[in-house]
């Protein structure tokens, strides 16, 4: 019997609503850490904004969520992530165990990109859901972002969340939802 693949989500798929919309059978296993890297937004998206990526940093640590996938979900995820990402396997720490998991890294990173506000919201929501360390959540809250010039695309992305956590709530969450406010 083959074990189902593990997937380490540190970008927009950190958000369970976002990943469930893409892969309904994905099972969250818990928060996980990837030592030796830091989060960047250097992957150029098809929309021109910055998407989550990793840069080697011996003092860094990227937090995310570990999911168990159905084997066929990997090919679906490859298609969703697109040709700008390469799937690689790295060691992450989850529940006190070191586990090998798939994740996605930019093939051609570009510095100086900003994520759209809704993209960053996916990360912040996922970080809150997964109860990632408060320090890491504050780091995400301080990340600069920009407004998506395509209002239809932005509306589709914001629709995954309660209205009080969307763009009308300002640059963060509603204080009743966001434990860091």
UniProtKB/TrEMBL annotation:
- Keywords for this entry? Lyase
Q: Which domain of life is it from?
A: Bacteria
- Region of interest (Disordered), ranges: 161-181
Question: Where, in this chain's numbering, is substrate bound?
Answer: 7-12, 119
Q: Where is the active site?
A: 81
Q: Which GO terms describe its molecular function?
A: gamma-glutamylcyclotransferase activity
The protein, known as: AIG2-like family protein
Instruction: Give the organism, scientific name.
Output: Ferrimonas marina
